[in-house]
């Protein structure tokens, strides 16, 4: 992320009035000690926490988490769904754009910032604020949380014995065993 991306995100999160945990991975941001707006950490101290890393599944599992602003990578998307957490997608490359669209338009468990980004992928603070407030405070956000809870339930059923994922893994193992026997 560029310094400009970080500043817009910082201002948007601050303006939203919502409590947040912001993981800023050092390997994914441009090094610049002035990336955060001056006085930012002092202003958000009572409701914002910035860290360089966090155990994502553990965070998403926590009952106080009301939403997940994500790049919509496959793992992050699946983890969010499996924990029943609605998303705000801000994709950067590859499959993230498709995952974001599915989260919003097909599964109806997310909002997107992609549609508000400029040609460099920059989203302005007011759009970030609007998306966060929508997810956390609006009737639409309530519906997204309800849909996320339904998908969580479906995902959990799929991995239980006899569920669709469980059956598919069993069929794959059986098929691989048959192939091994044929090659002997």
TrEMBL record:
Query: What single Pfam family name could you report for this chain, choosing any that match?
Result: UDPGT
| UniProt keywords, alphabetically | Transferase
Supply one GO molecular-function term.
UDP-glycosyltransferase activity
User: Could you tell me which SUPFAM superfamilies the record lists for this protein?
Assistant: UDP-Glycosyltransferase/glycogen phosphorylase (SSF53756)
Q: Where are the transmembrane segments?
A: none
What family does this chain come from, according to its entry? Belongs to the UDP-glycosyltransferase family.
Q: What is this protein called?
A: TSA: Wollemia nobilis Ref_Wollemi_Transcript_14126_1622 transcribed RNA sequence
């Amino acid at each position: 992320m560029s310094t400009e991306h970080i500043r817009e995100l910082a201002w948007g999160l601050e303006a939203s009035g919502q409590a947040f945990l912001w993981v800023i991975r050092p390997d994914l941001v441009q090094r610049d000690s002035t990336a955060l707006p001056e006085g930012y950490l002092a202003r958000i101290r009572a409701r914002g926490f910035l860290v360089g890393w966090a155990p994502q599944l553990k965070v998403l599992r926590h009952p106080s988490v009301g939403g997940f602003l994500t790049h919509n990578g496959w793992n992050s998307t699946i983890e969010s769904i499996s924990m029943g957490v609605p998303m705000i997608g801000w994709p950067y490359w590859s499959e993230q754009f498709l995952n974001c669209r599915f989260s919003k338009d097909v599964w109806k468990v997310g909002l997107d910032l992609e549609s508000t980004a400029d040609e460099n992928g920059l989203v302005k603070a007011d759009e970030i604020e609007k998306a966060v407030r929508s997810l956390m405070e609006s009737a639409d956000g309530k519906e997204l949380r309800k849909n996320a809870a339904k998908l969580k339930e479906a995902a959990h059923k799929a991995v239980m014995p006899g569920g669709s994922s469980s059956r598919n893994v069993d069929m794959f193992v059986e098929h691989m065993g048959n192939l091994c026997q044929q090659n002997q």
